[in-house]
Amino acid sequence: MNCFLSLFAVLCFPVMAEDRPNVLLILSDDQSWTDYSFMGHKVIETPAIDQFAKESLTYTRGYVTSPLCRPSLASIFSGLHTPVHGITGNDVRNGRDGKKKWGRNDPEGAKIHEQIYADFEKRDGLARLLGKAGYLSLQTGKWWEGKPVRHGFTHAMTHADPAKGGRHGDAGLKISRTGIKPIQDFMDEAAKEKKPFFIWHAPFLPHTPHNPPKELFDKYLAKGESKFIARYYAMVEWFDQTCGELFEELEKRGVAENTIVIYVTDNGWIQSDDSSRYAPLSKQAPYEMGIRTPVMIKWPGKVTPKMDEETLVSSIDIAPTILKIAGVEVPAAMTGIDLRDTAALRKRDVVFGYDGNHDMFDVNDRTANMESRYIVHGEWKLLLHDEKNYGLPYGGRPAAHPDNLEGKPELYHVTEDPHERKNLAQEKPEKVAEMTKVLDAWWKPAN
Question: Which pTM was predicted?
Answer without folding.
Answer: 0.95
